[in-house]
Amino acid sequence: MPAQNKTSLVKTEKRVAIQSVTSQKARLILIQPFNVVRRAILRRAAFSTLSAIVVLMLCGGGSQRVTAQSAGTNQITVIGVASASTRPDIATFVVGTETVSTDILTSIDQVDSAIDSIQSALERTGVEPNDIEVLAIQVTPEDLLDSRTGSVSGRMYYRVRSAMRVVTRDVNTIRAVINAVIDAGANGIGDYAFGIQDSTALEQAARAAAMENAQLRAEALATGLNLEIQDAAVVSETILINGDRSALSPNGFWITGASGGAFPADAGRAVVTAQVTVTFRAHP
Predict the structure, then answer these.
(1) What is the per-residue pLDDT across 144-187, written as a single tens digit (0 to 9) for each?
(2) Are residues 224 and 267 in the same domain?
(3) When you count CB atoms within 10 A of the terminal residue's CB, does the N or C end of the chain come out lower?
(4) For residues 223-239, b (16+ Cβ closer than 10 Å) or e, as one string?
(5) Segment 5-15, tens digit of pLDDT
(6) Are 163 and 176 in a shared domain?
(7) Cα–Cα distance between 83 and 74 in angstroms, integer?
(8) Radius of gyration over alpha carbons of the chain, in Å?
(9) SS3 label, residue 70
(10) Do residues 108 and 243 share a domain?
(11) Residues 181 and 96: beta-carbon distance below 8 Å
């Protein structure tokens, strides 16, 4: 075979081989993207299916909650407020005596005698012994000044004070009680306070009125929403008192007081305020 023909044959075989290799690569290139796309499509389909299941589950649960809410009807929450008041039925004050002497024993004896006289006078006005409490007896030594020079004389005198707390359970007699202790030797009176011995009835009246107020408020709102009020689902309350409950008893409280010696012109009124928060069920 001539050399030229051999050369042509070799070139032809090379082209065929190249074409064959190229075709195989092309097939590989075509197959690989197809496999990648197929896997992506399968993953996406699986994810879509899972998402659809999750969405169906969520939608199913949500529809159940909505149904439950509609079955439970609507709710209206309001705050009702009302107060009840009355005049005080108890009073208290502090009464005391003060003596000054250069002899401490004499001063103490004078104060003791005044305490006995005051207690006797209080009991005669109807005050119970348990409502009379001796708070303190205080002895204060002081320097006696020279009346001519104003300087310290070197001598001492003694100021003795007593304090008694008195409770009267009839506020209408308090002025008579005060007059009696003054006649008995008291020369210091103050710390007046008035109160309520038992506020239970006052609280109940305020609470009942507050519930009525809440009912009226709820009905007014329901009318504007074309609803009708049913029963109360949730109720909470707060009791407000215009005084210090702990100072008297678990059920009573003090309402007014004066630290000085002036007697109050009016005892005022004991006020209890009830505030209730009520959630009503309502339906169309």
Answers:
(1) 777 777 777 777 888 999 999 999 998 888 889 999 999 999 98
(2) yes
(3) N
(4) eeeebebbeeeeeeeeb
(5) 444 444 444 44
(6) yes
(7) 30
(8) 48
(9) helix
(10) no
(11) no
